[in-house]
Design brief:
Layout: H1 13-16, H2 21-28, E1 33-38, E2 42-46, H3 48-54, H4 66-76, H5 80-90, E3 99-106, E4 108-120, E5 126-135, H6 137-174, H7 180-211, E6 220-223, H8 224-238, E7 243-249, E8 254-257, H9 259-274, E9 282-290, E10 293-299, H10 307-312, H11 316-321, H12 331-341, E11 346-349, E12 360-366, H13 374-384, E13 390-394, H14 398-410, E14 414-418, H15 421-430, E15 435-438, H16 447-455, E16 462-466, H17 471-480, E17 484-487, H18 492-514, E18 517-520, E19 523-526, E20 531-534, E21 537-539, H19 543-553, E22 559-561, H20 562-569, H21 578-592, E23 602-605, E24 609-612
Parallel strand pairs: 7-9, 13-14, 13-15, 15-16, 16-17
Antiparallel strand pairs: 1-2, 1-5, 3-4, 4-5, 6-8, 9-10, 10-12, 11-12, 18-19, 19-20, 20-21, 22-24, 23-24
Helix pairs in contact: 4-5, 6-7, 8-9, 9-12, 15-16, 19-21
Amino acid sequence: MAENTEISNLCGIEEYQPRLKNGNILLDNLSVGVFLVAGEEQIVRVNRALEDFLNTPGETFLAKPYQELFASLIEFSVEPDVIRRELFAAILTVQRNPQVDFSVNHEQMAHWSLTFFPVWDGEGVLYGWGGLLQDVTDANRHVGLQGDLLQDIVHNIRVPLASLKGRSAALLVHHQQWEREMVAEFLKSIEKTVDELIGQVDRSLALFRLENGKFNLRPESVNILSLLQGVLERSAERWPEVNLEFEHSLEVPLVRVDPVRIEEVLNMLFQGAISVEPAPGLLKVKAQTMENWVQISVQSPGFEITRDEQQTIFAKSGSVSAAGKKGIGLNLFITREIIEAHGGQIWIENPLPEFGEGAKVIFTLPVLPEQTDARMASRRITQQTEVAKKILIVDNQPDSQSVMRTILQKEGYEVEVVPTGMSALDIMQTSPPDLVLMDWLLPDINGLNVCRSIRRWSTIPVMMVTSRTSMDDLVTAFQAGVDDYLTKPFLSDELLVRTQALLRRQKSEQVVQNDEIFSRSGLRINFDTREVWARGERVELTPIEYRLLIYMARHPRLVLSYERLIGEVWDSPEAGSRRGLFAHVSRLRQKIEVDPNKPEFIHTRWGVGYVFMPDY
């Protein structure tokens, strides 16, 4: 933040708050935590991001000495004594924008960075100060991995260069004395070394594209059997000393892939499998059709991956740690990225050691489902007797678009496909669908932000369809307001079952909204007369409390995020705040719950939102 951050006429919490309405909106939309200290060293502002960092409502700190907020930071810190000294030393030099970096044990190990800044009044007099709190865990990890990856790339390029230099120098000195056969042998080894060097450069370029978001696919309809046979023929010429065995049972040979990228995958897997020492002399390749997938495996004796390595070897950090295994290095990380970009999966299986067959690398590629399944046809007929539901697919990958569109259209759904988040938002406001299937990574706005925008005005169900598989990603998606989460690759039946479940849920919610009276567990709401009774007694609610109760009652058993409730209940999202929401929920519980400290209806999902449980 600039050194002359100016906030006019800060006088204390009473006068400070009404002067910063626009500033409040800005601060609450920042992804970094912010707090401001003014007046008599009191905290006068805490934004939503800081509440999330500390898992504490902002009003806990307002009008309190800044030392109370520091105490929360120190409590999270792995080294409390060190961070205590650094925090209190930093505020003595706040005009220099000091920065305090520290590790925290906050659900899991993380790294936070707190940067201090001064606040000046309109006359240039120092009137207060503040802090910006950021989670720099991923950034620190990324920097470390970049260094490891660069070291691995340099090593893998220097090895063939040293070999090339040694052989070319020997040839230059002795070519006149050597016989033609010896010269030819050296030239052949130089050619092989140059091929290895080109391959390493290609892999480094692929990694560069992945790191910078420039990894584009050019999918087309490809006969996977012909592609495999072509790669195997070229591999046989490249490694004549290796016996290549190919077995297949492909019933659906056509897939939609980028043939250049898939050939890169096969070449990297082949090279990794046959580069072990001692040389295996045998490479087994197998391809088969499994439901809506083509599954391909690569295996050779001596290619061993331990159970521990299997858990991490496809990650960048795992690939670097495995660089000691000749031929692996960054290959498995790059192959995973390519396969998942096609909507497939890749993994490793280890047979029992006594078989001596070596580890097997397996990956899948999606194909379009068959149209001869009588059960699916029957389901389509049933679907077509009703009004076709409209489904919006938001995905910029042509192969994913094609697969999902085909599966859903065969079931009788009306499908519209857009590649960007902005296009999706335009359609949502002009011709809203019944269901949205959305990828996480989009070229303009990521799927999470699209979902957050949708939730400001709509309850249309959203299913996130993505290749991201971590639990943190799943939790983040549900916090953003998605209703379901499906990982790629997926089976067609799984996509259809989840789609039907979301549409049924939406229909049941519409039925609830059309009911004139809600009555559950002693709570009675008359939507027409706007009257509420709890255990036989009429309850007087404010307009905000009533809208909050109505919205939660019409969305039972769903996790309603703080942002979703604020956007739906207040006249505009900017008019509400988490502090206001917490206060209204607290008062509402006092009025409708038997024991507000042990609520039956309104349950908290800490750090996420609330759930209304009518049948608790």
